[in-house]
Specification:
The protein has 322 residues and is of the alpha/beta class. Helices cover 35% and strands 20% of the residues. The chain has 2 domains: 111 residues, Orthogonal Bundle (Arc Repressor Mutant, subunit A); 174 residues, Rossmann fold (3-Layer(aba) Sandwich), CATH 3.40.50.
Length: 322
């Protein structure tokens, strides 16, 4: 299925992309696109992705840049199982010595396990910090949010799950009118609260930090007490057989309650989620009424998408022919 004509062009970004050089902006090294070897200009969508990556770093301290780099390393290890020093140095535009220091620091925190020439992800370790996840693949998540917002009519009742992509979708819903938002995601609640015509319903109990969400029986019961016109939910990972993965069983239960009590259940995910590992399992890719991705994942997952092509929406039109 082809992406809608109005869908924005965007590029998938998981870390500093290859084909960049480091320049100094206010004393901070930031990645900047360079001409390709053929001399042709890079597509505009790729240049915009470079800009979105570079600007935050222009105002970031050296310590902040280091933490952002380590978050990108951890995300890559979490997705692929293991990472190599040479590949990371090339991708992130830093020296192998710097990468080894980063890997050693992550190993001391028990997030990675050192291997010859790299490191592997430690199964069962926690998800990335919310602040780090919120900036990973941000252009892709914004494009997804715009597509989903077009599906929501004024006056609708909307479920919004935990996670960074649903929270960004909620921000796009602030432009709608008179929505009833039922969510256990405080970031999403704040985002839609910019519009005073909306009604926002939250569960009680203890808030989980630093994610700023609610994952308790009250949250699960809340989704069971309402019927939504559209339910928007994210996922920690999508396994090779299409199973949906999260980091805690309560995340799975809340997500499945959203799906069960929605007239239209919409799964939102950027393509980095395909093959990403997490321990808790529940639900399947094919259970969603609509699946909104930024773009197609690795060809290895083509077989998963074939049965759901009629329910698939691609937010980015680059390479999104279907």
């Amino acid at each position: 299925m082809a992406a809608a004509a109005s869908a924005p062009r965007c590029a998938f970004v998981s870390a500093w992309p290859s084909g960049s050089r480091l320049v100094s902006v206010r004393g901070i090294a930031v990645p900047t696109p360079v001409p390709s070897r053929t001399g042709r200009r890079r597509p505009a969508c790729q240049e915009r992705a470079f800009i979105s990556l570079s600007l935050p770093h222009a105002h970031m301290s050296a310590g902040g840049a280091r933490m952002d780099r380590r978050s990108a390393i951890l995300a890559a290890a979490q997705r692929h199982g293991r990472v190599s020093v040479d590949a990371l140095a090339s991708e992130l535009g830093v020296s192998a010595h710097t990468i080894r220091r980063d890997l050693n620091a992550l190993c001391r925190e028990a997030k990675l396990r050192r291997l010859h020439g790299g490191a592997e992800f430690v199964e069962g370790s926690a998800n990335l910090p919310y602040a780090a996840r919120s900036v990973l693949n941000f252009p892709a998540k914004q494009a997804i949010a715009q597509v989903v917002a077009e599906l929501v009519k004024d006056g609708a009742t909307v479920f919004v799950s935990i996670g960074t992509t649903p929270a960004i979708v909620a921000g796009a819903l602030a432009k709608k009118e008179a929505l009833t938002i039922v969510t256990n995601n405080l970031n999403a609640a704040f985002a839609v609260s910019e519009n005073s015509t909306h009604r926002v319903i939250l569960p009680g109990g203890e808030m989980r930090l630093p994610d700023r969400d609610f994952l308790n029986e009250a949250a699960i019961d809340l989704f069971g007490a309402y019927r939504a016109d559209i339910g928007i939910y994210g996922v920690g990972g999508i396994d090779t057989d299409g199973s949906l993965l999260d980091f805690h069983s309560t995340e799975v239960r809340a997500r499945e309650q959203i799906r069960a009590n929605s007239r239209t259940a919409v799964l939102v995910a950027d393509r980095s989620k395909f093959g990403r590992r997490a321990a808790a399992v529940g639900g399947h890719l094919g259970d969603a009424d609509l699946i909104v991705l930024d773009a197609r994942p690795d060809p290895a997952f083509a077989g998963l998408l074939a049965p759901v092509e009629d329910r698939l929406r691609l937010a980015c039109d680059q390479g999104a022919a279907a």
